# Entry
Amino acid sequence: MMLPDFNRQDENRQRVLQDTIARSRQIGHGLIELRSAKDDCNSSAQLIGIIEALHTLKSGVAYLDLPGIELLAHRLEGNVRSLWELKAPFEPECLARLIDIHVILDSLLFGCAQEERVSVAGALASTQPLFAQLESQLGQIAGIRVATFKSVESDRTVLQLALRAELPQ
# Structure
């Protein structure tokens, strides 16, 4: 019977973490570039790139077993996708909220890379008002109420994270 190579697993986890952080930086640059985008075609392409990067980032944090960060990335991806689907001119306030939320996501990933104890539950709680503002703004743009992301599973995840700090394994 062959035992698992834990050093190899640690190397893989480290590589996935570094790739995930790089993807997060790509998302940040894309969001900042959207501020100055004047052309709707370029903006649409940038949003698609951000959505794809967020989707890949979610896979990375799932592999790393970071459910709180995965939940945050999932919600952020959903809101960016809503903005893309609206095909409406960008509101500076929407972009500002997206950037604010991304900064929190990025800092959580950086904390994991530094093997610091990170309070994912606290970070998730700090994003709630930002998401509420963003979703309200998206709803106003669309002329409809955008459903907020809420489920029994996400509530349970937030509660579990509030009871323990999430650390890289």
In short: The radius of gyration is 17 Å. The longest helix spans residues 6-36. The chain has six helices and no strands. The helical segments are 6-36, 40-63, 67-86, 92-113, 120-142, 152-163.
